[in-house]
Amino acid sequence: MQDRISARACSDAAEWGRFLERVPWATAQHAFGYGELLASCFHYLRPTYRVFVTDGQIVAGLPLIRFHAGGPFRAVYSLVFSMYGGPLVDPDHLEDSELWHRISDEIDAEAVSYGAFEARFTVPPTAPEAVNHCLSMGRRVEVLRRECPLLALDRPLDEIVQGYHPSARRAVRRSRRQGVLVTSDAEVAQVHTAYPLYRARMAQIGALAKPWRLLRGVLERRLGVAFVAEWQGRTVGLLILLVSPNAAVFWTSAMDKAASTGRPMNALMDAAIHWSHARAIPVFNFGESYRGRPGLVRFKQNWGPVAAENVVTVRTYRPWVQRFWLKLEQPARYAYTRWDSWRHPFRAAELERGRP
């Protein structure tokens, strides 16, 4: 007897894109082009996309990234770097338990055939709980829940602004009085001038900076939009959103600390919220705060979001490899970042030659 639900690979970006349009929790990270960009930026990542078909129609999709750091260190992610992924299902098929089991079995089959030590998924907070239930099926499963504030934009802008904490409204007014200028949807060349601020900030907090080629690719593929702040004749702040019709996701930001009196980050965030609202994007996702930094947590809360959660689900297949990788991962990432910076140096002089 033939299975009612079949699974196959999808290599057609247009076909994948048409399906994404039917899924209300799909983000920019689910896009076919995002996986292609990751593969072009990092040699150890390879995307694979699966679709599930019944009665000749795609009813679900599964974006996956194969990770290989050498030797036994293979894993399956959806997607890497804590980006949003996980199964995507047509809303008309959310109650199809057979479909969810088929997706779960496909994850296991992919992980086992690839020799993965784990399969890790970070699911958007706007996804239905059925997605997390599907991922939690299995024998060795760990589920982590992390705070992720969301701001609803499907209401009048005046109401949103009135929901800001008074200190945020005062800071926005101060930035205007101080003459901070924000360029929305900034050109790549302008973002290039702000990128050193981001690099310096990541070094200060001990985090790994995203390489310039990844930021540039996100902007060139229109998977994200950048906001750049200028004050007293110099660039003092940067904010990048990942954007889809369903959500704007706070992705990358930095500012010149010497310009803090001008409140450039407040001006940037206010501009990003206004920009997203004008494009009828229904929700602004503030994302997780790196290492729970109290200052960043308070900054996000000042914009009036409601509490929500990212759910991270980890399926383990080779525990001993996973344990070893957890000890090795951080030094390996720092070593790779240093090597990658040497191989792809960031040169400010490229601006003068017109090649950001």
Question: What are the salient characteristics of this protein?
Answer:
single chain; 356 residues; alpha+beta; Aminopeptidase; 8-stranded mixed beta sheet; 6-stranded mixed beta sheet; 11 helices; 25% strand; globular; disordered C terminus
Structural description of this entry:
With 356 residues, this protein is α+β, with helices and mostly antiparallel strands. It has two domains: 6-147 and 309-317, 3-Layer(aba) Sandwich (Aminopeptidase); 150-285, Aminopeptidase (3-Layer(aba) Sandwich), CATH 3.40.630. Helix content is 38%, strand content 25%. The protein is built from eleven helices and 14 strands. The strands form two sheets. Strands 1, 2, 3, 4, 5, 6, 7 and 14 form an eight-stranded mixed sheet that branches. A six-stranded mixed sheet has the order 8-13-12-11-10-9, with helices on both faces. A hairpin with a 5-residue loop joins strand 3 (57-68) and strand 4. The longest helix has 25 residues, at 319-343.
Question: How would you summarize this macromolecular structure in one to three sentences?
Answer:
It is built from 11 helices and 14 strands. It is of the alpha+beta class and 356 residues long.
